[in-house]
Protein 1
Amino acid sequence: MFKHEASDLAVLGGPPLFDKRLYVGRPNVGRGLRDRLLGMVREILDSRWLSNNGPMVQRFERRVAEIAGSEHCVAMCNATAGLQVAIRAARVTGEVIVPSFTFPGTAHAASWLGLTPVFCDIDPATHNIDPALIEDLITERTTGILAVHLWGRPCAVDRIGEIAERRQLSVIYDAAHALGCTTGGRPIGGLGDASVYSFHATKFVTAFEGGALVTNDAALAERARAMTNFGLTGEHEVSWPGTNAKMSEVSAAMGLASLDAMAEIVAANRDNWVGYSAGLAGLPGVTVLGFAPDEQHNYQYLVVEVDDRAPLDRDTLMRVLQAEKVMCRRYFYPGCHRLAAYPGTVSLPQTDAAAARVLQLPTGLDVGPDDVRRVCALVRFAFEHADEVRQGVATAREPAPVRG
Ligand code: T4K
């Protein structure tokens, strides 16, 4: 079934194009994962070792360190806790410079510990923190930079490293999106003082909930490992205040089962990226975010920008797609600096511009090449009937936000 007239569009009253919803962030439960996981869960139950640095967690840490290109890895219950442990283990205090264009969890990790996140604007080409703007934000209270490899695209790591060294700042990378990504042939996990990956359910490799701190600094790793487990360094020895950020054995098992499918998932995501890039090519005002030739990617986020030249604005296009069961998202609208949690008047024009343009389209193992072709054809069709769509949407009620 495809659409012939504007009134065939679901947003104008027609039937949705897809029977089942297509999601951004659908967990990748590929062939074999179920059996691998259930086998390991049986092992865990038989062993009666459920948490506290058990054998599954140790295996998971070795696998992640290998992929990250780092000497040390500490598994965590999630990336937000991992970032907090990294901040404490790297002894970052006072003010930390953070991009605003990120998931709120990045800024929260700092502010929840009593630090002040100082929001920095982004480079519009990469959506990552603009290194040219960092130095102007440094004050006598600044002790660190918390940069994000957004969408898995590596930050300007050399320039950030150079500034940090000269100004004696720590660098922590929020690598929540960046498992398996490299820049200039270097895996991003060994860069800065520490990097933190996420293995949340919505990440392409998942541990249900999970995170991992990776570093080449042995002393930092030792502090992080202890801080993750209440600061314990011996049975009755507590060397630092700590928290409970441990990964459970079942999460590690899920992480291991999911890591086994990593290459398959990256290949599927890459095919989808190629399909979307071809299918949306030539549409006015629509750009699929690409990658630099010296970067390696996991393609887990399919990021499109919809600018002023497009016949439909980003939000109208989102309504058109969601009505057809294409559950696109607007990550990370409106930017942390515009959230009630972070009142202030900082001006970040590139963050505002990106937040107004971005749209993430569904990808992952549950999205096949035929789905991608149909989504692209839908965008094309909606653009061809833009006048009717705009008129129809203007008179229709705003739908309730859809999740799940
Ligand atoms: N830094 C960055 C840059 C991050 O992006 C994140 C997390 C963090 C740090 C913190 O990492 P963690 O502490 O979580 O390890 C989701 C995730 O909850 C969040 O982990 C992720 N970033 C963010 C980008 O996406 P929401 O609010 O969009 O989640 P939600 O519940 O709307 O789920 C997204 C879509 O995924 C749903 O539309 C349906 C699908 N889904 C979701 C879940 C949980 C499923 O199909 N199955 C599921 O089990 O934040």
Protein 2
Amino acid sequence: MKHFLSILALLTLVACQPKDPVERKIDRLIAQMTLDEKIAQMTQLSGGQITENLENQVRAGLGSMLNSMGEEADYYQRIAVEESRLGIPMIFARDVIHGYRTIYPIPLGQAATFDLALVEEAARLTAQEAMQAGIRWTFSPMVDISRDPRWGRIAESYGEDTYLASEMGAATVRGYQGKDSIVQMAACVKHFVGYGASEGGRDYNTTWIPEVQLRETYLPPFKAALDAGSLSLMCSFNDLNGVPLSANKHLMKDILRDEWQYDGLLVSDYASSENMIKHGNCADLKEATLLSINAQMEMDMESHAYLLHLKDLVKEGAVKEDLLDVCVRNILRMKFRLGLFDNPYCALETPNYYNSESLATTQRLAEESAVLLKNNGILPLNTKHSSQNTPMTVLVCGPLADSQHDQNGTWCFDKVDSATVTPLMSFRQWAKEGKIRLIEQPGKHWSREVSEANIEQLKRLAKQAEVVLYFGGEESILSGEARCRAHLDLPGDQSEQLRTLKATGKPVVLTVMAGRPLCIGADIDAVDAVLYAFHGGTMQGPALANLIMGKVAPSGRLPVTFPQAEGQIPIYYNKKNSGRPTYNPVLYDDIPVGAAQFSIGADSYWLEYGDKPLYPFGYGLTYTTFEYGPVTLSDTILLQASSPHRLIATCTIKNTGHCEAVAIPQLYIRDLVGALTRPVRELKGFQRVSIPAGESRTVTFEITEEELAYWHLADGITLGADGAYAFSAEKGDFHVWIAPNSAEGEPAKFALR
Ligand code: BGC
């Protein structure tokens, strides 16, 4: 009874709390809305042209339009504000994925920078440009964990690692939305959830992900983006464990709403409710509507499902109108947070695109995103390579050497190709300044083309040059949505071109501009140096020229494991050991010697490739060398549940080469024994540290119990009675590395007691 009374007192207290003024405004609006107006508010339709039908939808209270911008957006907004009954402004959305006009590196490239501050700044500048066209809602960041480079959308992701993707996604949300109480551009974290695990790397495909793995690997980046304040979230296309996300109540209700208490806006993916008919979990659009609304999908993007069927479902009693009120409330709240009721017209008459701040930031991001994979000493180029102290003669060639369109990568509808600066354009500038002599053969239009005449011409020109700079990779259309590849090679005859060039005896530097990791070990073996640069955006040309000429030292690190061959996929660093792991003294030094000997000849590897990838996660060279000292710990024991208890891990890194460069020490931890088996390493922190030649820097990382916790079943072995999962650390022994990448370093040891 006493218990009952205190609950009653609490409820009365909550009921008496003065309501937030915005919530009161929302109450008033909802009270005035008809059923039709609520449904219209829960609908998003494509703009891009002015039609009578769209005008009428807007007059009837349409909630949002996608792909309508500038004058057109203002035209429709005027109808919404002045001619719809309640004058509720619309919100204009677009896929502003890695820049609006000024294009930044693709997200996979951004992840390679490990530079959260710069990524946040790029998102802030992106929002500023997009807002000038009236866009207040972007469908970004995409935080799908991507461990399959065949999947074209890996380009839009931050790669394979949950921690890195969480940090990158949160930084991007902060950048888009800004720090003011009026949000500049709403983020929409997507695609909820598991989309990157599509079978065979095929888009829109089936996924099977056990709950523990969902929680450990796929959900945390979403939680991090929502905690960073993302005003919205988009569901994914995939069928997850038999239920497409557009109707997946477990994810959208149990986890998103009940467990995480998310009160932001959940939007479908493009026609994803309608797609469920083809998935085969509903017979028609009306049933799809019922399933989606029951999963509290609040806004229907382009399925027309809610417009056509929601009213009937409410009238028939299959859906309660209260549920629509919850949805409309979340939509209106976002509009208030964006200040749209006070300032509905956002497009500027004279926008200031491609300003110097944006160009400088994208150039820096492109410089930081390029990963030096190999260097036999040819880089950086300088006139010392030249025989008579005259400028070095450089042949710039390859399909991506001068492709203003392709170096921007996937998902950039609004760029102006002519504003893009290519590598060839930049080297022309270096030639003009007398620093090099330039021979140019930018090559074919498409990376996929094959041409013998081109190869002959390349051979002829290479003979006249002292060094060959080859810019190859994938044209932009080969990655992104519905751009999955079964062979991850250099398309067309690029490999043959590289071999022909190398056969001339001239050093060849290969720069790869691509939307994904490629399996190009043989090409890498054939050349002298390799910069893996992803698609780097508007200023990738000057960025690459600066790196190649040594004005800037490379600092990118791989955000994803590079396989040797497609047959190794999925391959990622934070795997678990098999029962017979390959014996590798670095990674598996905790295995007792006897067991290791036993495993030789009977372990887990590929006959053709052994157990190693082409390059591990976190890998990248620069123009100097770093020596990592041993990891020291402030204690060998971390005490459980005595707060606050933490260990400090320390490592001194020495620059043993001849130029200043950035080291990216990475903190990895391994839990040696778990009730559920644990990965061989997990990233838990990283830093970017610039170290002058000959100097040392000491880095420190804090380790708390939280870094050791993982998702497991509540009682350790079986699912708890209430289906509960626990996120907690188990007592036992741990290894900790502070290492230059996921495959190197010696661990220190400690125990959680
Ligand atoms: C994509 C989303 C995108 C949406 C709107 C869909 O096809 O999966 O990522 O935001 O279209 O353009």
